[in-house]
Specification:
mainly alpha; 2 domains; globular; UrcA family protein; signal
Length: 175
Amino acid sequence: MRAAIVVLAMVAAWLSPAARAFEPVTADLEQRLKRTGVEAVNDHLSANAFDLALLHRDTEGCAARAVGLTVELSRGARSGTTEAHTEALRTALGRCTGLVLSLVSVAEVPKVCASVPSWTVMQTVRELRRRMRIIEADEALRNSAKGKACSAACLHELKTTRAGLQASPRGQRAR
């Protein structure tokens, strides 16, 4: 019974006007990806900042298709566009941790579990600690290889970057 309710809720959310608003750019980019490949789509997005912004808005809003597409596009050749995809995934990770971690490989986890460059030092400290608490509170994430790798990446950043050094009292390490 509970599973049926969850499925009905997912279908209702998919059919809602807000969910449909996410579809056009994602659907277009998915079709482009099938026809032309990752690099061509990233080139298109590099030349079309509005489409890139819409994709990242949807990604950061945790639209599953947009997150999946952004993960695929982030695997392209290193460029400003792939770095922007990674930043969108880092932001989404704070809102839909399980979704993002389910779509990346274990090798990609440290990259998406890092802080967003635009955060201040204290934002970085608060957000990394919050993400570690999210993972710790979710048994499935806490026990998964990706959850453990993400927590480790957050802790490493807290201990070894300027965020950790500034957040810790003298002589003590960040927790």
